[in-house]
Amino acid sequence: MKEYQTITEISGPLVYAEVDEAIGYDEIVEIETAQGETLRGQVLESSEGLVAIQVFEGTSGIDQNASVRFLGETMKMPVTEDLLGRVLDGSGRPIDDGPEIVPEERQDIVGAAINPYSREYPEEFIETGVSAIDGMNTLVRGQKLPIFSSSGQPHSQLAMQIARQASVPEEEEGDDDEDGSEFAVIFGAMGITAEEANEFMEDFERTGALERSVVFMNLADDPAVERTVTPRMVLTTAEYLAFEKDYHVLVILTDMTNYCEALREIGAAREEVPGRRGYPGYMYTDLAQLYERAGRIQGRDGSVTQIPILTMPGDDDTHPIPDLTGYITEGQIYVDPDLNSQGLQPPVNVLPSLSRLMDDGIGEGLTRADHGGVSDQMYAAYAEGEDLRDLVNIVGREALSERDNKYLDFADAFETEFVDQGFDTNRELEETLEIGWDLLSMLPKEELNRVDEEFIEEYYREEDDEREVVEAAD
Amino acid sequence: MSKAESTETTGDGVIQSVSGPVVSARDLDARMNDVVYVGDEGLMGEVIEIEGNITTIQVYEETSGVGPGEPVENTGEPLSVDLGPGMLDAIYDGVQRPLDVLEGKMGSPYLDRGVDAPGIDLEKKWEFEPTVEVGDEVGRGDVVGIVEETVTIDHKVMVPPDALEEGETTEIASIEPGSFDVTETVAELDNGESVSMHQEWPVREPRPSANKKTPRTPLVSGQRILDGLFPIAKGGTAAIPGPFGSGKTVTQHQLAKYADADIIVYVGCGERGNEMTEVIEDFPELEDPANGNPLMARTSLIANTSNMPVAARESCIYTGITIAEYYRDMGYDVALMADSTSRWAEAMREISSRLEEMPGEEGYPAYLAARLAQFYERAGYFENVNGTEGSVSAIGAVSPPGGDFSEPVTQNTLRIVKTFWALDADLAERRHFPSINWNESYSLYKNQLDPWFQENVEEDWPEKRQWAVDVLDEETELQEIVQLVGKDALPDDQQLTLEIARYLREAYLQQNAFHPVDTYCPPEKTYLMLTTIETFNDEAFDALEAGVPVEEIIDIESVPRINRIGVQEDYEEYVEELKADITEELRSLY
Ligand SMILES: Nc1ncnc2c1ncn2[C@@H]1O[C@H](COP(=O)(O)OP(=O)(O)OP(=O)(O)O)[C@@H](O)[C@H]1O
Ligand SMILES: [Mg+2]
Question: What are the ATPase F1/V1/A1 complex alpha/beta subunit N-terminal domain coordinates in residue numbering (chain A) (predicted)?
Answer without folding.
Answer: 7-72
